[in-house]
Amino acid sequence: MCGIVGIVGHQPVAQRLIDGLKRLEYRGYDSAGIATLDQNEICIRRAQGKLQALQDLFTQDSINGMTGIGHTRWATHGIPSEANAHPHSSDKVAVVHNGIIENYAHLKEKLIKKGHAFTSQTDTEVVVHLMTDYLNQGLKPLEALRQTLADIEGAFALVILIKGDNNTLLVARRGSPLVIGEGNGESFIGSDALVLAPWTQQLRYLEEGDYAIVTPQGSQIYDIDHHPIDRPLKTINISADAATKGGYDHFMLKEIFEQPTTVKDTLDSLINADTETLKIPVNIDWNNISKLTMIACGTSYFSTAVAKYWFEMIAKLPVEVDIASEFRYRESPLPTGGAALFISQSGETIDTLEAMKQAKEDHQTTIAIVNVPESSMDRLADYSVHTKAGPEIGVASTKAFTAQLAVLACLCLDAAIKRGTLTETEAREHLQHLLNLPNEIYGILQKEADYQQVAHRLQPARDALYLGRGTNFPIAMEGALKLKEISYIHAEGYAAGEMKHGPIALIDELMPVIVLAPSDKWMVKTLSNLQEVIARGGIAICFTDCIGRTHIEKDGIPTQIVEMPESHLLTSPILYALPMQLLSYYTATLKGTDVDQPRNLAKSVTVE
Ligand code: M6R
Q1: pLDDT tens digits, residue range 69-85?
Q2: From the alpha carbon of 352, which atom of ligand 1 is closest?
Q3: Within this chain, do residues 415 and 453 fall inside the same structural domain, yes or no?
Q4: Which NCBIfam families match (predicted)?
């Protein structure tokens, strides 16, 4: 969602702020802007739409200054427009904000009564007027910030530029992440480490409730109780080309094709390939966990749904899975001795983060699987395991998903070994399948022509259905989500056995039905469902392996087959996810949609 960048330094900042905003584009936005302090004047450039509009405006009418702030806005309060774009300003301050000021309406009313004139529909603007009001009362900037923070409620990250204070930015964090980077005589502020990567890798992460005064020489941070505090300086290694497409047309395509490496890197961090044994970096006491609750959103939720089958079938551990936004308000009684596992690419999704806080209050052992080290969930959980997918820029999650599944497969084996439900020999057999995954992924990604051909069948459709059973039921849902997200074709993923309880009514000769049928214990049943689709004239496309093909041909089922390699309980959902990603990618490119930044979507969902 909204992205923040700030620089306080000794060289002109405006173009660098825009460059920083380019690295925040992936979060999703509808307008953008920058503000600098030039000869003690606040200068602002803002534009609705893509960053190119802001760049064009800046090129025609540039601004100077060595201190500045920038913002990409994902609209919450107020339509996407230049007037609602950040920074918002008065004659004294300019403000960028990520999050929501929940009590803004009440504050706005009070401020209007005091004579403040508002120019936008945003919640953010109350921060501008509160700061201005306190400065007008004679408070020093830091004291004005303290008073403002005491007035506002909600989740936010704020960066404030103050007229008359050329070498200073004020920042505050409550809920939304914010990081301060230290460079050579310059300081940087960002929503994440990626935006700061080309400038510095020396970072201090603000904790919940922290605020700070940032100067070119560094920062003075205060905690929620107003005590000066040192937050550790961490070195975060992100390659500067993580935010480039590396010759691919889209980040999403690059990230899909990175999967042999990202899955291998993830597995290498968890398995000793020489001894074919696990080396999980955290020691979870699976034997004393009575029940596991897994919670996440979107694609990350589908990885919990796959893992439920694994943990129940292999580790014999009862698992409940929940969508974070539902879990939070469901008042689900969590068992004594229970554990709650949270999955998130960003580690910042607000619903998942809040659910984790709730589970901690309910005395659950909390486990996080995140892709962003030092993210809020990473730091809050009792145990945290990292996916090694590297920065995922495309809004549609791909490589993070398969890396999550790789981690979950290993954690499941860890649980099974500790709970005594697998012998060492059985565990080794599972591990051998996992170790072979990167090669199999590579092979599947080479069959682009097959997926492009199926994409041509999906492109004209208004709706599509994805069917699967067992561990491939969540992959059917994930395939449907991918198609919806980037091609805007309505799609549903269903448990194949559930089709005849409703969705079968939708099937006609215009409806593509993607059937996932690896040769597992569910295959024969799934192929019966495939027959039901064909009997009603649906356009059936079946993803199966050579054993499935033999069945289909023996039974004379008239379906298009896309052949997959033979797979195994732990590898099949990972392998079958790949063609689903490429189908949606090729369908979207045929339709000409904005693959990496699909309409209305944000990468990191930091509002409820
Ligand atoms: O960062 P998270 O994994 O917590 O994000 C969860 C969802 O917002 C995310 O998976 C979303 O559904 C993706 N756009 C799916 O492609």
Answers
A1: 999 998 888 888 989 99
A2: 4
A3: no
A4: glmS (TIGR01135), PRK00331.1 (NF001484)
